[in-house]
């Protein structure tokens, strides 16, 4: 798409190390893993032709990947897509796996995903986390992680890393929760609360939800804006297949975009923020309902039954979302907007007014809005898959493991 | 900053070609150019140690770069920073050069910049371009480009490419002006109007202004939002040293972010867009002045003299900018906002109210706002430097030239 003149970043200035044989080998190992992952089972010859290397070069790489437990040979008798005789290669269903965890306002969840992308073990614990300390929650989550990891180990898997989704802003160190108002946490170093032997990444749930959409959604483009809601409203910006994180890791705070500059005061210190018009609590208030458990189910149920107050409240929330998204689309020019999390369940009542705003205010072609099929599962799946992706992208990270 | 688990993009999936010796050599050539450009004059040994390659490997690369006219040897007698005896290397002040051009609403400008970043020739033609056809304007611009290129050629330079800044939206093909309302152009293929023998890139002036800020500004971070204004208001988002272009190339349309959702109708089809409150015409109208030439000088002059209407109009424009920027900062979390173009000259009267909004509405630490020192020169310089950067980033693009 872009001409050579558009390369703004010098390839020589943004890497600490020079380009070496080692770096080249690492990238070619990743190419083999991605080729087999996307198109396998594949013979060595077919893999070589897919990635444009010689068969001899690929064989050396494949031998390492088999030794590390990332690939397996299916044997010469396997029929199907493999044209030439020779053993077909497949991504291993044993060996390294990703563990994803989610800290929700009223639940904890953990799952294990193998290198093939299959969920192999899962556990959920319901119960309010609001007001509990990070130590209390982490302790319980660690126990849940252990039970899921043990279950996976019985099937020959071992955890290559743990990724934790939280409903809050996470610093770029990937471990400090700077602010999670709906848990009552600030500046909580989760890195210190998890076992040190497992590589850990903590991230905002909207970010992991967007990554799940990128990796698992059908036909999701590489440039999109992912909007999700639990109690707050969050968004994640994906550009050319990468999350835009922001300087401090705080990008995507759509909930605090002003949509009524002289409107309601917001606890953030601002005025007229989107969250004051489209957040769950605002919608409940507008509909005359009391906060409680399972807010989304409650709202969706009543709207379904034809409750006019609820429908008007959701329609107005859609209008506010449409105003905020018009600004975001003008700034980012995404290929699509995806509504995820709780918003996907409420989309039948939000979408019409949201689209009216987006269409009426659009300068050019209107940015399409899609509804996520992953819904509330997105963040947990995104977390587990982020570990798997890290292994596929640099297989040498697991080379040392016996 | 980012842990390996944050790598969302597979290194093997986003490049068409496998990693080869040729690709490695190209990247190492770029490393040599950037090292000498940033720290030269440097001996071959010092260059090798800067980029972590052997002296023998660097010498082979340097020989090619000298033959292509990109580096020159200063001779062994040069004193100074070079510790060891041996010929010091410097970026050549002859050889390939970048030509930048700017199509403004009331001027055309062209300049040549050598590989050292020095402006070597320059030409400006004043006169309104509004309502003239792309063909008419391009013809005149081509003549200006020729005269500047000839001047540069007399000093031993030759044009490696031409980059043209336009006040409008440019498609990602880097040649089609999709919409330039202040010129009255739409869907104009500038690529067909310039000589085919020179690599051409057309881009939005706000984008080139932001790149100039990135490359030439003092202490400009690698993540920032650049806001500029001529007749319209544009912005450019720079993330990790790269422009965020958007799916169609239209990212950065800050002027059409809604700041008063029920406010004034905008020719774009929207309502309450920032441009209706902070665009030059809106400010003139609010100040009770007639549109004319040199609007910015006129506004700045009157504000300087203490004209209360003008000051109030600029203060209100700053407020509207502050509302739109609050949304942008919440979405993007940039390290800083830079006011460029005409906004830099008006900043004394815009900044106080702009900062009041940004501070009052900020959830966390306030994003700092800086004023560009390049001002209206930014887009032209950014265009010329983009050609120079392309050569530094991949020196092989000029290898074929005698």
UniProtKB/TrEMBL annotation, chains A, B:
Region (Disordered): 1-23
Biased composition (Basic and acidic residues): 1-12
Xref: Pfam families: ROK
Superkingdom to which the source organism belongs: Bacteria
Cross-referenced SUPFAM superfamilies: Actin-like ATPase domain, Winged helix' DNA-binding domain
Family: Belongs to the ROK (NagC/XylR) family.
Protein name: ROK family transcriptional regulator
Organism: Streptomyces pluripotens
